[in-house]
Prior knowledge:
By secondary structure, the protein is α/β, with parallel strands linked by helices. The protein has 13 helices and 11 strands.
Amino acid sequence: MIALSDPILGEEEKRALCEVIDSRWLTMGERVAAFEKAFAEMHGLEEAVAVNSCTAALHLALMALDIGPGDEVLVPSLTFVATVNAVLYVGATPVFVDIQELDKPHMSIEDARDKCTFRTKAVIVMHYGGYSVDLPAWRSFSDRKGVMLVEDAAHSPAVGEIGRWSDVAAFSFFSNKNMSTAEGGMILARQSPVLQRIRHLRAHGMSTDTLTRHRGHAYSYDVTMLGYNYRMDELRAAIGLVQLAHLPQWTNKRCDLSNYYREVLIAQIPEVKVPFTPMHKTAGHLMPVLLPAALNRQGIMDDLRNAGIQSSIHYPPIHHFSYYRERFPGIQLPKTEEFCARELTLPLHPSLTKEDVTFIGETLGKAVHKNT
C-alpha cells in the first residue's frame, strides 16, 4: 500500500527517547525549552510555547487575545474542524467565509470583508495544504478592521514568513504532519506578553513550574488565572528536536514531489486540476487535486485503493457537519462546497519516490477515464 502520509522515524528518535528516560525527567523540562527555542529561531523569532496539540494552541491563542462571548471570529469552512471548535471553546461565534477560487482555495478577503461586523474581533486564516496565504494582505485587512489575526499553520511549519505577520500562529506535530511528535503543537506570537500569558494558561495558570521548584528556585506557587493542562512532555520534545533538524530537507522533497505530480498529471490527465501554481510558496503538506465535476469520487478512490494507493478528502466542509448544520443552519458557501465535492488528496511524503508518483498518476488516469 502506498500510504497517504508516512512519518519518518528511526534510530535518532529512539536514542532521543532513551536519553529522556535515562534522565528520569519526563515532562516540561530542558528539552521542551530547547525545542521551543529551536522552533522559534527557525521562524526568525525569539520565543515559542510548546503545547500538547494544535487544537490546544488555537484555544490558547484565542484566550490570550481576549476573544470570548459576544465576539465573532471569521473562519474558513475548508479546514479541519479543530480550527472552528476552538472558537466555540472560548464562547465566541464562528462566521464562515467562502474560499477565493477553486484553484486558490484560501479564505476570501472579499467575503470576509462583507461578513465583518462590529462584533468581529478576530480572523483565523489557514494555510491549506501547506500553501501560504497572502499574509501581508490579511495583516492589512486586520489592521483596517481593528481585529486580531490568527494563523492556523498546522500544515506549514518553517515556510516563508509564516508566524511573523499574525498576532498568534498555531502549529501541529500530529503524526501525519511534515514533522511529528505523535501529538503536539507550538505557538508563536508577535508580542511577548501574549506568549507569557499562554505559558501560564497551558499549565493551570501556575506562576512557577515543577522544574523550577525541583531546582530549588521556588518553594511554592500561585495560581493567577483559570488555566489548562496543555503542556508538552519531554519525550515529545526530544522527538521534535530530531524531526525539526530534518524539516527543511523533508520540505524540499515534498515540494519536488508536488512539482513532479503536476508534470505527470498535466501530461496524463489534463482534466484533473491541481490547485495553486508551481510558484506558490508551500510546505508541500498535501497533494490536493480537483476531479471533473461529473465524476464519482468514491469510485475513483475505490479504484486507487484496489491498486494499493491510499487517498483521502481534505476536507468535508465544516458547515455541513451535523453539529454545525444544526447550530448554524442555512449557511451557503458555493465555492467551498464545490471544491470540497471535487477534491481528492493523493499520497505525499518524503518516503515517496518519483516512480511511486508516476504509478499513482497512471492509476488515477485509468480510474478517471473508466469513470468518465
